[in-house]
Design a protein that fits this description.
Layout: H1 20-30, H2 34-43, H3 49-56, H4 60-73, H5 79-94
Length: about 110
Amino acid sequence: MARRKTAFHHDPSLPPLFSREEWYEIVQRLSLSPRQAEVVGLVIQSHKDKEIASVLDISHATVRSHICETKSRLVAEDRVGLAYRVFWTFRHLIEPHRYPWIHRDS
């Protein structure tokens, strides 16, 4: 049975603190792939690797691979650091006047 490709905002992985539009903008700013966005969305909801693998129908090793690669790219030491980068990015999106140097190209 072939798996259907899904958009990056797989419903279970859409963090409840963000609207779809906010999450889309965060994902764009962090340059996450669709699968990385799904995994990160579930990580910041405190899901364990095995739960993420089950929800996304991928292997535990693939989940670990996505998390490790994303942590490396976003310079995050652990899952908390990964969540921090997501919320830091969101804060800069909603408060551009506080961080004008980040929004020069916008």
